[in-house]
Design a protein that fits this description.
The protein contains twelve helices and five strands. The protein is an alpha+beta fold. A five-stranded mixed β-sheet has the order 1-2-3-5-4, covered by helices on one side.
C-alpha cells in the first residue's frame, strides 16, 4: 500500500448528501399526494359530522381540505419541528370537529414518522419533546373518540386498551428508530474525523521521513567534507579544493530537492507537476549517485546485487533506496569507519536489503533513539515488511529490511 494511504476508509456520505435536490422535491410532493388521497378516501367513507351532508360535499371541498392538511408535509425534511406542530394541530382540530381517528389515521401516521425524522436529524432533547407531544395529542384524540362513541365502557374495553398501547408503542418505535439513525450518523462523523486526523498524521510523518532522508545524507557529507577541508587547507590545498567542490555539489543537490518538495507541497492540484522543477524519481536506480557522494565523504560503499532484477512497485523501490541512503548516512556520521557493504537480494516474494559496517560504534546515536532508524522502521511497517537494526556480535552495525514483493510476472504498479 502507498505510504501515505490512510488506515481507515472514509465513510459513505449520508443519503441526503448523495441524493439530488430534484429527487427530494419529487419525493416530498409524492408523500403529500399519497397522504391527501388516503385522507380523501378515509374521510369520504367515514361518518364524521363534516362529511355527512351529502355527496356534493365530498367533491372539491373535501379534496381541497385534504390537500390543505397534507401540504405541510412538503417541508417536513427541512423543518420537521414546525411541520409536526401543524400536523398535531390538525389532529386536535379534527378531534374538536368530531372527526373520528379512523378517518384521519393518515395524518396520525405522518405525525409518528415526523417524530422519527426529528429524532434522527435534531438534538436528543428535541426528539424527546417531539415524541412526548405526539404521544399526548394522539392518545388524547383516540380516547376522546372512544369516549364520545360509547363512554368509559368503550375506553376501558380490553381490545381498545390494546389499541391505546399500540399507539404508544408506535410512537416509541418511531423515536427508537430515529435515535438509531442519529447514533449511526454520529458514529459515521466520528469515524470520518478520525480518518481525517489519521490521514493528516500519516502525511506529516511521510513528509518528516522524506525531509530527514533528503537532508540528513547531504548535511552529513557536507559536515565530513568541511572537517576534512579545514584540516588540510594549509598543507594540501588541492584536497581542500576537492572538499569544497564536493560541499558545493552536495549542497546544491540538497537545496534542489528541498525546493522540489516545497513546490509539490504548495501545489493546489497534487496531480500536476511543477514545470520549473520536475521531481525526479528516487529509487534503487540512483544508488550509483549515492555511492559516489558517500565515497566523496570518505566512506567506500560496496554494493552487491543478488537474484534476478526486475521492476519494483514504486513504494517498495522508493523505500528501499531511502533505507539504504539512511543506513549509509548513519555510517558516515556515526560509525567511524571507511567501509560498508550494501546487499540487495531479489527473491520471488520479497526484497532483502542488508547494510553492514565494521565500525567501532552503532550507526545511529543511542541505537533506537535516532529519527533515521525510526523512519526506516515506519517505512517497512507501512509495506507490511520486517526490519531489524542493531550491533553485530563481532563489531559494527547491521541494518536489514525485508520488503514483500508481488509475484513475478505481475504488473509492478
Amino acid at each position: 500500500m502507498p505510504e501515505h494511504a490512510p488506515y481507515l476508509h472514509p465513510p459513505t456520505l449520508p443519503l441526503a448528501q448523495r441524493t439530488p435536490q430534484a429527487a427530494w422535491t419529487a419525493l416530498a410532493w409524492g408523500a403529500v399526494t399519497a397522504v391527501a388521497l388516503l385522507l380523501y378516501a378515509t374521510m369520504a367513507g367515514g361518518t364524521g359530522t363534516v362529511v355527512v351532508v351529502g355527496e356534493e360535499t365530498q367533491g372539491a371541498p373535501l379534496a381541497a381540505m385534504t390537500v390543505a392538511m397534507a401540504t405541510p408535509l412538503r417541508w417536513a425534511w427541512r423543518r420537521p419541528g414546525p411541520v409536526l406542530a401543524v400536523v398535531l394541530a390538525e389532529v386536535a382540530t379534527a378531534t374538536a370537529l368530531a372527526l373520528r381517528t379512523a378517518q384521519t389515521w393518515p395524518v396520525l401516521l405522518a405525525a409518528g414518522l415526523l417524530v422519527g425524522l426529528i429524532t434522527a436529524t435534531r438534538a436528543r432533547r428535541a426528539g424527546l419533546a417531539a415524541a412526548a407531544a405526539c404521544l399526548a395529542v394522539l392518545e388524547t384524540a383516540l380516547q376522546v373518540d372512544l369516549f364520545r362513541e360509547s363512554g368509559w365502557g368503550r375506553v376501558l374495553a380490553p381490545g381498545f386498551l390494546g389499541l391505546t398501547a399500540s399507539v404508544a408503542l408506535a410512537v416509541l418505535f418511531s423515536w427508537l428508530a430515529g435515535t438509531s439513525v442519529r447514533q449511526r450518523g454520529e458514529y459515521a462523523r466520528a469515524l470520518h474525523a478520525q480518518a481525517a486526523v489519521q490521514a493528516v498524521t500519516a502525511e506529516r510523518l511521510r513528509i518528516a521521513r522524506e525531509l530527514h532522508d533528503m537532508v540528513a545524507h547531504g548535511i552529513g557529507v557536507i559536515a565530513i567534507q568541511a572537517g576534512a577541508g579545514r584540516r588540510v587547507i594549509d598543507s594540501e590545498p588541492e584536497r581542500a579544493r576537492t572538499a569544497l567542490a564536493s560541499i558545493e555539489t552536495t549542497s546544491r543537490e540538497t537545496l534542489g530537492g528541498l525546493r522540489r518538495m516545497l513546490d509539490l507541497l504548495r501545489q493546489a492540484e497534487p496531480d500536476r507537476t511543477h514545470s520549473g522543477h520536475p521531481a525526479p524519481f528516487t529509487g534503487l536506480a540512483d544508488l550509483d549517485r549515492l555511492v559516489a557522494s558517500t565515497t566523496d565523504a570518505g566512506v567506500e560503499v560496496e554494493v552487491r546485487r543478488h537474484g534476478k532484477q526486475r521492476p519494483l512497485p514504486t513504494a517498495v523501490d522508493r523505500s528501499a533506496f531511502r533505507i539504504v541512503q539512511e543506513s549509509v548516512t548513519n555510517v558516515v556520521r556515526h560509525a567511524g569507519t571507511r567501509h560498508c557493504s550494501v546487499s540487495i537480494e531479489y527473491r520471488p516474494a520479497e526484497l532483502r536489503i542488508t547494510v553492514v559496517d565494521d565500525g567501532q560504534g552503532p550507526s545511529a546515536p543511542a541505537g533506537e533513539s535516532g529519527y533515521g532508524i525510526r523512519g526506516m522502521r515506519e517505512r517497512v511497517a507501512l509495506l507490511d515488511g520486517r526490519f531489524t537494526a542493531g550491533p553485530r556480535p563481532g563489531g559494527g552495525f547491521r541494518v536489514a529490511a525485508f520488503l514483500p514483493l508481488p509475484a513475478e510476472g505481475t504488473d509492478a504498479r
